[in-house]
Design goal:
mainly alpha; 2% strand; two-stranded parallel ribbon; elongated
């Protein structure tokens, strides 16, 4: 065998095929470059469109914020003025018939909060706010719950007692629905059927007059009533007044008696 025959022969690609492959590869490179440019242009176009969309949205937002808010009641007028103080750029309009000061803003707000279904406590027939009456105006508990210092039961104020104050208020207060309900009860001579919050078992006797005479504050058992728009039972870990979550329990009462050196024999409460 000749030396030439001993060497392995390389399988070389025909010249035509090799040149064709180079052309194909070159075409692929060019195609990739073109597609890259197209994709980049599309991305820029999308970005521009998104930018125009944002600008359009911002314009709409500006236009919406430029709307004039018109009060439809005195309570709404109070609220719009308050909002204007928080945001001076706000445009508001107060018609002349709603430009008065009555009812007051605190009365409007308390009436709404007293009927707020999202806050604890039952919805009462009238949106009466202890926070508004006892807290803001400082009305003493015994003024409305008269006889508490003389009677075992605290009782609830009569419609006549409520009207003793509200009959002197300007007629503009009738805008508040609760005032209308109160006046309807007065006109029809019917009592307000309040929902009871605090209830003791029948075998337990609790005398309000004895506790008032001993100097026990209402908040000791009822919690910070002057801070409540709606009255409800409060947990002691929140208010720190020792008020149980559901109802007054025996251990809670006995602990209070021990802390105040009061008698704890059974017949004091069970008779």
């Amino acid at each position: 065998m000749s030396p030439t025959q001993d060497k392995p022969q390389l399988n070389r690609m025909p010249v035509f095929a090799e040149s064709t492959l180079r052309s194909v590869l070159h075409g692929l490179v060019v195609w990739a470059a073109i597609m890259s440019s197209v994709v980049g242009f599309s991305a820029m176009a999308s970005s521009d469109d998104a930018g125009h969309g944002d600008d359009h949205g911002a314009t709409e937002e500006v236009e919406l914020s430029g709307e004039v808010l018109v009060a439809a009641s005195v309570c709404e007028a109070h609220e719009l003025r308050f909002m204007k103080e928080q945001d001076p750029s706000l445009r508001i309009e107060i018609p002349a018939e709603y430009a008065g000061q009555w009812p007051s803003r605190s009365a409007c707000v308390s009436a709404v909060e007293a009927w707020n279904p999202e806050t604890p406590g039952p919805i009462q027939p009238i949106p009466f706010s202890h926070k508004h009456h006892a807290g803001e105006f400082g009305i003493d508990c015994l003024y409305c719950h008269s006889g508490t210092d003389r009677s075992p039961a605290a009782g609830v104020p009569s419609v006549e007692l409520c009207m003793g104050c509200h009959a002197q208020f300007p007629p503009q207060y009738d805008e508040i629905e609760g005032i209308q309900i109160l006046k309807n009860h007065w006109k029809e001579k019917t009592p307000v059927e309040w929902h009871q919050i605090y209830r003791l078992p029948e075998h337990v006797q609790f005398r309000h007059n004895r506790h008032i005479s001993a100097g026990v504050e209402c908040q000791r058992c009822h919690g910070p009533i002057e801070e409540m728009d709606k009255v409800y039972m409060t947990p002691d870990e929140f208010w720190k007044y020792g008020v149980p979550v559901k109802k007054p329990e025996m251990g809670w009462c006995i602990n209070c008696h021990r802390q105040n050196d009061a008698q704890i024999d059974c017949v004091r409460c069970h008779y």
